[in-house]
Specification:
Helix content is 15%, strand content 42%. The protein is mainly beta. 22% of the residues are buried. It binds zinc ion (ZN).
């Protein structure tokens, strides 16, 4: 049990390490090559639990988002932000993250280019328009 826990933690640490460099670490199924988020335990196509971790460039385009005007702890200097779902350029995977400085839909048209710039312990991926 404790072994499983420590494995999961190091996967998260690795994910964070990559995010801080602008990459998204994804799991690729060794059996069928299906790409999944690093939080899954079984392949959703073939139910294998053998993965290899593959870093992808954390750049993509905005698919949808929600604008929030009440900012969470740690972002008091930001007036408002968007919780963004974006599709990675390099694979067919949607990822979500936190984009500071968005107050109206005009600030962020759908399809805007977005990239991962950092990782926040509580709020996850930190994004930036580019
Ligand atoms: Zn699979």
């Amino acid at each position: 049990m404790s072994k499983l826990k420590s494995t999961k933690q190091s996967t998260r640490e690795l994910f964070i390490e990559h995010a801080k460099k602008g990459d998204i670490l994804l799991n690729q199924c060794i059996k069928c090559s299906n790409i999944m988020l690093e939080t899954v335990y079984y392949c959703d196509k073939c139910f294998s639990n053998s993965f290899r971790q593959v870093p992808y460039i954390g750049k993509g385009r905005v698919v949808t988002y929600t604008i929030q005007s009440v900012v969470p702890e740690g972002f008091e200097d930001v007036n408002s932000y968007a919780w963004v779902i974006f599709k990675l350029d390099d694979c067919d995977m949607n990822v979500s993250g936190f984009l500071p400085g968005i107050s109206t839909p005009a600030d962020l048209p759908l399809g805007s280019k977005i990239k991962v710039v950092d990782f926040h312990d509580k709020h996850g991926l930190i994004l930036q328009k580019y």
